[in-house]
Structure prediction request, 558 residues.
Amino acid sequence: MKTRTVLHYAVLCAIALVCVFPFWWTVVTALSTEGNVFAFPPTFWPKSPSLANFEEAFRVIPFLAFFKNSVLIAALTVFWKLALCSMAAYPLARMHFRGRRLVFGLILATLVLPSEVNFLVNFITVTKLSLVDTYAGVILPNVVTAVAILLLKQAFEEVPQDLIDAARVDGASEWIIFTRIMLPLIAPWLATVGILTAVEAWNEYIWPSIVMSKPDEFPLSVGVLYLRGTFGSSTRVIAAGTVLTILPTLAAFLFTQRYFMRGMDGAVK
Amino acid sequence: MVSGRRTALAAWLFLAPALVLLAAFSFWPVGFGSYLAFTDYSLIRPTSSVGLDNFRYIFDNEMFVTGLKNSLVFLLMVPFVQIGALGLAVLVNNRLPGIRLFRAAFYVPVVTTVSVVGIMWGFMFHEQGALNYMLMALRFVDAPVGWLSNDTLALFCIMFVTLWRGLGWYMVMYLAALQAVPAEMQEAAILDGASRWQRFWKITVPMLHPTIMVCTILSVLAALKAYQEVDVLTQGGPMNSTFTALYYSYDQGLKHLKLPRALAASFVVSVFCVGIAMLCLRYLKPRQK
Prediction:
């Protein structure tokens, strides 16, 4: 039994090393002041660590502007996704009306549709709507997703019917029932969808790079590559920019791990 | 549940904003995009139909044909991702001290933006990067290997990075499914003297069948549609050897503004995706009891 546990940990550690090593090496590079990422032999521990590279990263790219853009894009996507997807999920879960199955089928179909290159046509649409270079252009295509609607529909279905009936007897409108009773009751699920969406929106890379044409409108996920393109020689500064880019998502993930670990299973049922 | 005229009106009002956005940004691109694949659309002159010309062009084009082949090679990843993820899920489905830390470590690549993944693995695969150093220190190789500059190796490096990014996501799916397997079933089997191996094959795997099916299909579709890792690691090079079918679409559509060609390529990928998804559904379906 004892050797079995040791072996178990050994395997876990080996795989974890492969998963985490690229991050570790990037951090070491970002903190190093001498040599660079391509020094041979490389260093696995920072020599005379300092924050100089971070200062340099702040100096050479409009880091705070990128950061602000990322925060705004993530926050707006979360807000609108929670609002519109919960509004869509509620009638699908709790009302009878003609066309309900059809609408639900259409929403499910978007899961199978080849959406990866929708941006080719979406760019035409966004151009026609004059939304190029706007936050609205970046967030609108990502606001409504089938996965979010499915998760929230599941959540609405678990709310006891008595609560809704009681409110109806009191003469509450559907909107009041939705905002005052249903939404507070599914708050944990809203949090789950919100956190998953925030990380997704923060990490979105292809679409914002298409919609935003000016460097100071880029979110971090796009701007960090811009750093590589413009200052290709200074790998340590790129590493510092990389660390700054992923720090917020890593922190969000580590503090809210449980949301990620249960996030998808509700949607797949 | 409530029904009636007023309810129907309320229901549609609740649904309207979401449906408008879905129509505009999910259905319109597929419909209008498929139409444009058969035209000579461009921003500067009126559109006219060109029949199958775009398809003829791409199937004569070396980059697209290589890309399509590479996308099929990507399918080789599916068993590795799925068996690996299931294995990981089994390894972390317990209460050993520190297990949450390991789960987090396996999931961290999933929450990392693809551009950062490209930068980090660019460092790793560099000729004087960490990978070569370790391999040379262990004397597996004598001289540094040009991982991303070698036209046979580069594709496999990209495939490895997609595996690295994907494992944690599927692990969480399998972990949730494993935790839904009733403990009594395992306990009864232990009383009956079933070995670990028997319990895994006779209880766990059949219970997980629906999850395995869903994950396999998602993984097949993801493999066929891979292109972002190509963009951040090699941009199709060296010598166009790492083009995938959708990377061709992305490259033509965005970098060369040849939209009809790009949409024809993505149309072909869609046909493959739908076809393969239907095959999977047919052959991986759990047997009805």
